[in-house]
Design goal:
Layout: E1 28-39, H1 42-50, H2 58-71, H3 73-76, E2 87-95, E3 100-111, H4 116-134, E4 142-152, E5 159-160
Antiparallel strand pairs: 1-3, 1-4, 2-3, 4-5
Helix pairs in contact: 2-4
Length: 162
């Protein structure tokens, strides 16, 4: 279980960083959904909407990048478990009323540890991809509001953002 307190922690009895031992935990269905957004100039959003970004279809590339990011989470976040994800869904939606692209990612698996970090990573990577593809026309874009909005499964139970 890692840690001297008997609970789940990333530190052993000597205070050294370790990957949490989840081998004693039961496998359960686990789902997590995260959301975020990237706010931009109205003209940048119009370019995305109209397919006018020189680097290509921003939403399709960002969707694929988010899926790939979820799958590579343990390479990016120290001490994350490598997981065999059953599914990763990334949706991007234009929100012209806020000059934003809204991003939502849902990750699922049956396993011993949750997929919150994978969902959060998927949103982050998708948002960074939108930024990368549009930075030539709008360096003032703002990535934000990345948060967990839903979690189901596991010992700690569910979570729904308010």
């Amino acid at each position: 279980m890692g840690g001297s307190g008997g609970g789940f922690t990333h530190f052993d009895a000597e205070g050294k960083a370790v990957m949490v031992d989840v081998s004693a935990k039961a496998e359960t269905e686990r789902t997590a959904t995260a959301r975020g957004e990237i706010v931009m100039q109205p003209a940048t959003l119009a370019l995305i909407r109209d397919g006018g970004v020189e680097k290509g279809d921003v939403l399709s590339v960002a969707r694929l990048a988010g899926i790939m990011g979820a799958k590579r989470t343990p390479e990016l976040i120290p001490l994350c478990h490598p997981l065999a994800l059953a599914s990763v869904k990334v949706d991007l939606r234009l929100a012209p009323e806020r000059n934003a692209v809204e991003i939502e990612a849902t990750c699922k698996l049956t396993g011993r540890t949750g997929v919150e970090m994978e969902a959060l990573t998927a949103v982050s990577v998708a948002a960074l991809t939108v930024y990368d593809m549009c930075k030539a026309v709008d360096r003032a874009m703002r990535i934000g509001e990345i948060r967990l909005v839903h979690k189901a499964g596991g010992k700690s139970g569910g979570y729904e953002a308010a």
